[in-house]
Amino acid sequence: MQALEQIAGAGSPYFYRPGRPEPAALRLLGDGVDIVVTALSVLLLVVMFANVAARVVLNSDIAWNTEFGEFVLLWATFLGGASAARRGAHMRITEFVEAMPPAWTHKVEIATRLGVVTLLCFLIWHGVGIARSTMEQEMTVLHWPIGLQYLAMPVGSALALAFVLYETALLMRGEPIPQEAFMD
What we know:
single chain, 184 residues, mainly alpha, 70% helix, elongated
């Protein structure tokens, strides 16, 4: 664990680091999400390239390519959303909030985060239900449970929730939130 802390330490050039230190557990969770998203992206690229090569060279495609691509892309999308939540990188329209007096701005920022927490809880709750109800169904070629594919929504939403709750706690304590890389 200590070796992992040194590799993913505060000064690491390989991982995202906000201007303020994150708690170690949150930092490791975020780094893990980033590693998985990167691995899924590379895997998707390799499989898609192999399919194109097979089509050109062998005049045949990889049968499971489409299902696998959908599966990986869905997981990468929801995990990527969690990674963006960690960075504060989701698109926001801030003109109205920035025009408000500072006391209101702070309250609106907190209310916005609480709305996001509510939405993420909704996605987790319903995502678990969808995943559960489709676990008995199988993908046509891969024969994996379809519920595993739909599990991406509650897992990605739960990870995003952890980052948004941390950000909300910072705001409630009056501390700056780590979004400096994405501010104009």
